[in-house]
Specification:
This protein has one domain (9-267): Creatinase/methionine aminopeptidase superfamily (Creatine Amidinohydrolase). It is built from 5 helices and 17 strands. It has helices at residues 9-31, 39-52, 123-141, 149-161, 258-274, and strands at 56-57, 62-64, 67-69, 73-77, 80-82, 96-105, 108-117, 166-167, 173-175, 182-186, 203-206, 209-211, 217-219, 226-228, 234-236, 239-242, 249-250. The strands form 5 sheets. It has a 5-stranded antiparallel β-sheet with strand order 10-9-11-16-17. A hairpin with a 6-residue loop joins β9 and β10 (182-186). α1 (9-31) packs across α2 (39-52) and α3 runs antiparallel to α4. It is globular and about 45 Å long. The model has no long low-confidence stretch (mean pLDDT 96). It binds magnesium ion (2 copies). One magnesium ion binds at residues 111, 174, 205, 207, 238.
Length: 275
Amino acid sequence: MGKIYLKTDEEIELIRESSLLVSKTIAEVEKNVKEGISTIELDTIAEAFIRDNGAVPAFKGYRKDRLVFDYTLCISVNEQVVHGMPGSYVLKNGDIISVDCGVLKNGFYGDSAYTFSVGEISEEVKQLLKVTKESLYKGIEASVAGKRVGDISNAVEEHVNRHGYGIVRELVGHGIGRNLHEAPEVPNFGKRGSGARLEEGLVIAIEPMINLGRRDVRVEKDGWTVSTVDRKPSAHFEHTIVVKKNKAELLTTFEYFKQEEKQKQTTSEKVISNQ
Ligand code: MG
Ligand code: MG
């Protein structure tokens, strides 16, 4: 995948600006995540918001061989894992939807994803979302200078394995900066102590893609959408972070999301009632 570029403080601030815009864009999308809206409508909202903020959607025009991705967001519903194309699909109660967004501003990229629920979802799927998000934070905790990429991968893998879910192997996290995808690759499985050394100023996107059932995925006929082979649901959460000495710093945030707030409240209520 090429050379690893460590970022200067100035570059990190620019990536932070792009990353925060990504987070705000996903929050704008979330306001509209409800039964009856089509995924292309969500995409239109996201594109307008990004352009109003002086940035460019990073995924629009993205090329894979001769295929061109022509949307601002990757929207992946239910059994779709990632790279779903916005379209005429209308959200219904019980769906989950991964909203993945990237922007380019001042020459630097930011990248984040969150899986939202539409109305009421089953306990089983709620648990999948919870564990997938937890595994992302396990990976972030392991992202400190001196450790290795494999320590991040292993932290994600160990947490997910405890719950018996399928970890997607074909797609991985990545370095990010002047390019949307840079070295190193950050898999969601791997051996502790292996891979590239984490150094201060390394900016990476960590993004576990976790399946309720088996780990196997396939690409749909559209050439982009990655879905689970067993058609069971899949979750996806992503943060852009920077490696520091003792603790990684998040450049994207989930704090703008209503569903995140709600979950936090329920968790703290539980903590209180357990005491
Ligand atoms: Mg990414
Ligand atoms: Mg992404």
